TrEMBL record, chains A, B:
The keyword Metal-binding applies. This is Hydroxymethylglutaryl-CoA lyase YngG. It comes from Polycladomyces abyssicola. The keyword Metal-binding applies. SUPFAM superfamilies: Aldolase. GO terms for biological process: ketone body biosynthetic process; L-leucine catabolic process. Residues 4-271 form the Pyruvate carboxyltransferase domain. InterPro entries: AIPM/Hcit_synth_CS (IPR002034), Aldolase_TIM (IPR013785), HMGL (IPR043594), PYR_CT (IPR000891). PROSITE patterns: AIPM_HOMOCIT_SYNTH_1 (PS00815), PYR_CT (PS50991). Belongs to the HMG-CoA lyase family. Belongs to the alpha-IPM synthase/homocitrate synthase family. Pfam families: HMGL-like. Keywords: Lyase, Metal-binding, Transferase. GO terms for molecular function: acyltransferase activity, acyl groups converted into alkyl on transfer; hydroxymethylglutaryl-CoA lyase activity; metal ion binding. The gene is yngG.
Length: 305, 305
C-alpha cells in the first residue's frame, strides 16, 4: 500500500454543521488553500434546499467562483431532481447522492422512507450520468443510528447493491454519529466486501468519541483506499451538545504519512488553511494535529527548544 | 481477551501538566469519584521535589487523606532516595521509578545521564522492596524524543532489561510527546516482546496527535493488557503551546467496552468526576467521549430526542 485518496469534505459536511455562515469569498479562499496543500478531491457544497442548510445557500455562487486547477475535482451533494437542476448549471465536476442505512434516520434527514428515496436517487444518477457527471453515494448511520441503535449489516449490503446498480461509482460508508469501533467496522466490512469490491468503498468517520483514526486504520487493513476528512475536524463544536465533527484531515494526513502511506497533502500548508478558518468561525478547531502544529509554530517563534 | 487493567494517572501525570494547582481536598474528592467509578489502580501523586512540580507539592498530605477501599491500590512516582524517604512515611501502596529512553530527554527531565540514573533507581527499587512495596518502571520517549527524534529499539530493550533486573514488576512504555503511530508501536513491541513478556509491559499513550487509541488498539492486538489513562484527557491544554494530554480514560473505556473488553469502570460515573474537574480548572477537558456524554445529558435535560 502506498497511497490513500482523501476526500476533503470540510467545505460541505464541516460547514453545514457550523452555526456561523461563512461568506462566499472566504469559502473560495479555503478552496484555494486546500489546493495549495495538494488536496485534489474537494466536496465544496450541497444543493439541498437552502432552507435546510442555510450555511450552504450560496452553492451556485460558490461553484462559479471556485479556482480551476488541473487535477482538482469539485464535488457537491445533490438530494433530488430539483437540486440536480441547480447543480447542472454550475461547473461542479461530480455529485453525491445520500440516504441512511436506518429507516428512522432516513425519514428525519430526508423526510422519506428508504423505499421512497431510491427512485429519487436513481433519477438523479441517471440524469447526472447523461450529463457526463460521475455520482458518488453516501450511506449514513452504517455503524449505528441515533434512533434505532445497531443497523443490520444485511440492510447496508442491500442498500449498497442498489446504489451500485443505479450507477454510483463509489459508496462512502458513514459513521454519522461516531459510534463505531474496530469490531463493528470489521464485522461490517467483512460482509460488505463479499458483495462490493474495496475500491468502490470509502470510509467516512466522525470523531465524536475519538475512534475515527482507529476505524480508519482497520478500514485500511481491510483494503479501503479512500477516506473522507474535514480540515481542522470542522463540523460540530467539540464542546457543544450534539457535537460530532468529521475526522480531521490533518489527523488523517499525519497518521497516514507516519504509516508510510502517501496522501499528496502537505500538512503545514493544510494547517494554515485551518488557522484562517479558526479566525473566521471564532473558535479553535478540534484537530489535535492542527493544535500541535500550531504549538510548534509558537515555540519556534519564541525561540524555545 | 476479556479484561484490560487501566492505570488512572490523571491525579499525577494529568495534574502535573496543568497550570492550576488544585487544593488537596479537591484531589481527595477526585480519588473518591474514581473509586465510585470502579477504578482500582490510581497513580495519585509524585514525590519529586516540590520545586519541580508545585502542582503535586502536597503529595504526603494527599496520601494521608486518600480514601481507603478494598481492592484499590494507590501509586506514586519516586525519583530518588530522598523522594523514597517522603513516600515511605505515607500509606501509598506502590511506587514508580522513571527515566527516558533518549539521553537528551533524560538529562532535561532528570538532570542526569542515563548511566547516572540507573544506580539511583536501583537504590529506590531495592529499598522500596525491602519495605514491602512493589515498584513499576516508566520509560519515557520510547516512540520518539523531542530532541533526538527516533529512539533505537535496541536502546529501549536494554533499558527495560535493566529495569526488570532491578526488580521492577512492570514497565510502562511512554509515548511522551504523542508521536507514535501503529507502525512504530508494532516495530517496537515486536522486538521488545522477544525479551520481555507482554504481562510485564503497559502502554502509556499521549493523544497529542490523536493517535493514542489506535496505538492502544495495536498494543492490545500484540498482547498488552495494561493501559494508562487520565480522566478527561487531563494534562496539557489542547489549545496551548506544547499541549500534550494523556489518552482520556473515558475514551479508553468507551473504546474497550465497545470492543467487548471489560475495564470494570463505569463510564458515566467517571464522566461525573471529569465534569467536576472541568469546573475546578476552568476549561473543558479534551476527552471526546466525555464531551459526547455531557451532550447526551444536556439533551436529556432539554427533553430532546
Amino acid at each position: 500500500m502506498t497511497r490513500v485518496t482523501i476526500v476533503e469534505v470540510g467545505l460541505r459536511d464541516g460547514l453545514q454543521n457550523e452555526s456561523v455562515i461563512l461568506p462566499v469569498e472566504v469559502k473560495r479562499r479555503i478552496a484555494e488553500g486546500l489546493i495549495r496543500a495538494g488536496v485534489k478531491e474537494i466536496e465544496a457544497t450541497s444543493f439541498v434546499h437552502p432552507r435546510w442548510v442555510p450555511q450552504l445557500a450560496d452553492a451556485a455562487e460558490l461553484a462559479a467562483q471556485l479556482p480551476r486547477e488541473q487535477g482538482v475535482r469539485y464535488r457537491a451533494l445533490v438530494p433530488n431532481a430539483k437540486g440536480l437542476e441547480r447543480a447542472l448549471s454550475t461547473p461542479i465536476d461530480e455529485y453525491a447522492v445520500f440516504l441512511s442505512a436506518s429507516e428512522t434516520h432516513n425519514r428525519k434527514n430526508i423526510n422519506k422512507s428508504i423505499d421512497e428515496t431510491y427512485p429519487v436517487l436513481a433519477e438523479v444518477v441517471e440524469r447526472a450520468q447523461a450529463a457526463g457527471k460521475r455520482v458518488r453515494g453516501y450511506v449514513s448511520t452504517v455503524f449505528g443510528c441515533p434512533y434505532e441503535g445497531d443497523v443490520p449489516v444485511s440492510q447496508v449490503v442491500r442498500m449498497c447493491e442498489r446504489l451500485i446498480e443505479m450507477g454510483v461509482y463509489e459508496i462512502s460508508l458513514g459513521d454519522t454519529i461516531g459510534v463505531a469501533t474496530p469490531k463493528k467496522v470489521k464485522e461490517t466490512l467483512e460482509v460488505l466486501l463479499r458483495h462490493i469490491p474495496a475500491e468502490r468503498l470509502a470510509g467516512h468517520f466522525h470523531d465524536t468519541r475519538g475512534t475515527a483514526l482507529v476505524n480508519a486504520y482497520v478500514s485500511l487493513e481491510m483494503g479501503i483506499r479512500t477516506l473522507d476528512g474535514a480540515f481542522g475536524g470542522l463540523g460540530g463544536c467539540p464542546y457543544a451538545p450534539g457535537a460530532s465533527g468529521n475526522v480531521a484531515t490533518e489527523d488523517l494526513v499525519y497518521f497516514l504519512e507516519q504509516e508510510g502511506i502517501e496522501t499528496g497533502i502537505d500538512l503545514e500548508t493544510l494547517c494554515r488553511v485551518s488557522v484562517e478558518v479558526q479566525k473566521e468561525i471564532g473558535r479553535p478547531l478540534s484537530s489535535k494535529v492542527l493544535q500541535s502544529v500550531i504549538a510548534t509554530w509558537s515555540s519556534v517563534g519564541k525561540g524555545e527548544s
